[in-house]
Amino acid sequence: MLKYLKKYRMECVCAPLFKMLEAVLELFVPLAVASIIDRGIGQGSAEHVWRMTGLLGLLAAVGLAAAVTAQYFAARAATGFAADVRHTLFEKLEALAHPDVDRLGVSAMITRMTSDVNQAQTGVNMALRLLLRSPFVVMGAMVMAFTIDVRCALIFALVIAVLGVAVGVIMAANIPMMQGVQRQLEAVLGATRESLSGARVIRAFRREDAEYQAFRAKNRELTARQRRAGRVSALLNPVTYVVINAAVVLLVRQGAIRVDSGALTTGQVVALYNYMSQILVELIKFASLTITINKAWASWKRIADVLATEPSMAWPDRSAAPAADAPAVAFEHVTLTYPNAASPALEDIDFAVGRGQTVGVIGGTGSGKSSLARLIPRFYDATGGVVRVDGVDVRDYAKAALRGKIGVVPQRAQLFKGTVRDNLRWGRPDADDDALLVAAEAAQALDVLAAKGGLDGELEQNGGNLSGGQKQRLTVARALVRRPEILILDDSASALDMATDARLRRAIAHLDYRPTVFIISQRAASIMAADLILVLDDGRIVGKGRHTELMESCPIYREIYDSQFGGANAAAVGEGVGA
Hints:
4-stranded antiparallel β-sheet; 64% helix
């Protein structure tokens, strides 16, 4: 944590120093009040009263200036600290591999970026202002009490010891509870995120009540955890009040006896009472600070866990040299098992594809089609076998070199708030408007540009002002802008009608740079003209070849084909779509 405060050394020193100055001035106030009582009122000296009153006003003014200055430095350090932590945390999250993101969870990462960082920022701010000031005032008041009367000051020492033990016990019990609160907050955030992203599905299946009840259950658990943690932390104030007020009773009794015997003056007893009141106020502040630091420390531990996470994938600095005569993509007996999965998602996948060829991948839901696509750009590492691009193991590529060869159109179209131009340039930041229009034309997206006002048309978050088909065509155009050597279309035409899908495939087949294309689809029509078709079932290749070969040799492929075109007209429709 201190590493992120190094840039703010001056603020971290000045904030406590000015708070200490305020505390020192505050410790002189009871002495001035005692002097007013004993010498001013007791001896009837109005001049002394006015002099001491002026001194109190000066102490108040200087103390206020010191407090405001301390707050300024503390706020600068805390906000700068939070900004640096957020930047570092975001960089870390961006550097994590897909398996790491799956393991941590998106909602957990959002909570750490927002709520946890805010809690840590508040903790730093409060610590710089009060962590030294409150103990200093408490110990200073006790020392000042000893200078007035040793017997009465022993009460101060006893009070501080008792409260120190009470605060330590409550903190030890409260920190794990606050960590539990933050974990449950992640669950609530996750449920909220799922409900908002899947709002249309929830409405379509009329699951509003069920989702509401599930959210209420998670929210009740969060409330219960917060209450349990709150009950423990709430003990600090009453314990502090009870102990301090009991000490005040003892102090007044002991002071009265000492005044009666002539060992103390009335003003000194008032000064001792004021010092006890200062201790009460500071311990109440310290109790609140303890609760804040508990929350901040629990949040910081969760942030630190992410910062300490090393990406599970290591990338070399330089890429191995590709082989000129090697296949564009080759899978050599590849197996993929996701973390904590009961069985492999892919098993013994073996095939090779030449440059410029088109590969169709088809199979039922859950057969492993998208998993196969994720291995080519190395979103995941194969747990067995080797995936090669241009004859080189994907693990021997530098990240930029491998990803620069590949254009991926994901199964779920993802666009970002901004102009159409900004979204398309994700593929190539230096692309000019002509290149963007060429890519849009190939992706059959010129009508989308016309409808949205051209390249300067504004898109809402996640393309909320576009239909599903429009979003898919723009994501295809975004991938084509970079002119990739390997183009992966992961079920990226599911929202397109058959005619638009056919025109899109025809345009991709006639691209002048001839990429190697992977078309992953559940439509037989989309992959029938491919140079190689892979039929997946339960993570295994059960058919491999061209359309006509698979119709004769692969029952699963023939079943998919017949279910979509009808057995009676299969051959005629097949010939028409293939052409």
